[in-house]
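Weekly modeling sync, notes
Attendees: AB, CL, MP (scribe)

Item 1: holo prediction request
CL wants a bound-state model with FE2/S2 (inorganic) cluster before deciding which constructs to order. AB pointed out that an apo prediction alone won't tell us much about the pocket. Agreed to run with the ligand included and paste results into these notes for async review.

Input as submitted:
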Amino acid sequence: MLSVEQNQRVTQTCGNAPAGELLRRYWQPAALVDELADDRPAVSVELFGEQLVLFRDEKGEYGLLDRHCSHRGADLCFGRLEGGGLRCPFHGWLFDIAGKCLEQPAEPENSNFHTKINHTAYPCIERNGMIFAYLGPGNPPPFPSFDCFVAPEEFTFAFKGHIDANWLQAVEVGIDPAHASFLHRFFEDKDPDEGYGQQFRDSTDEIPVTKLLREVVRPIIEVEETNSGMSIKTLRDLGNAGMHVRVTNLMFPNAIVIPMSNEMTISQWHVPINDQECYWYAIFTDFERKVNRQAMRDQRLALYTLPNYKPLRNRTNAWGYDPKEQRTQTYTGMGMDINVHDNWAVESPGSIFDRSNEHLGTTDKAIIAYRKLLLSAIDSVALGKAAPKQGAALKGPLSVDTIGAADNWEGCWIECDMARRDRSPWAKEI
Ligand code: FES
Ligand SMILES: [Fe+2]
């Protein structure tokens, strides 16, 4: 439980709210590369309530600028891509990716007024299908060396989805390992070969994950602080069949890395659009094979609409809830795609859940540990200290789903991770 004041402190990110000040000190996903692929040269981006415009200049470099022109505020999302930057269609002022005003064509010819304009601009980096931006003060921190960034692009697939609720609700669903036994329960197991690109549709050592989640509903959860955030081990005792171990991670401050199958992981950020909405951004990373991007994209486009990546099943249509399906096929009655279940879990508490009304139990161990880290980091940054858990040396993390022998399971996750890296054409030891 948090006090009303603490709840505000961890959820509010707009303006100069302290949690926003913390999140801004990390590279954050701003858009998918795909969003700039069609005809339109500039697209809108909203981060922490700030209205921005993203474009790629003629040299292929990205600019993320204040959406409203420094002259008289016209919307630069309608800008012209030319002359080495983005030109406002109102009076032709031209801005480069650093926010320098290069031209003011209606001003007198020898005017140097343009040199006095500093349009707000944020640095961007493209990595494996995503454009990351740094919206904090000073120089950006080094980019971390997580697997999803080290992997060659063909071994990855990036996508995003809109969430109609505060960012912290989304992170807290991501670090809650117990919910998978309930929220994502399927009454029947499918052939794992049909589950490519879908979470909880694989099998671990021949046991379908759906079966073991359904049958062992009281996991032991172990949380350990790491140099990049937290490692969360979820242990499900399968008796003679061994110990199911799932290792997931919180990458501080607002990402998770979880196993999707034996070969694939999902690195997922929850980024505030404003305090009532966020986007999840994910890089799916395969350790062994090139990703079938078309299949993964098609699966997701069956649920999301472009250009805003809003889910078809959402609050306005009760997430497609079907009571008959709930009786016979799934725990939620909201279809076979677990993203819908998670969206319901994130959105149904309301836009910003009042955590002074909650009752945390044993299964909320990781959430409690994370909030402590978060509040302490917010306080540090507010006092002018450095933001924690950053650096180019941050690697991995270890994120696996495996079963250890009943009498010898301790450490089986390390062997599983090493074996996967040995098989991988690109992954090195962490
Ligand atoms: S408002 Fe953009 S150039 Fe005048
Ligand atoms: Fe989930």
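Recorded for review: Residues 365-382 form the longest helix (18 residues).
Action items: CL to compare against the apo run; MP to circulate these notes.
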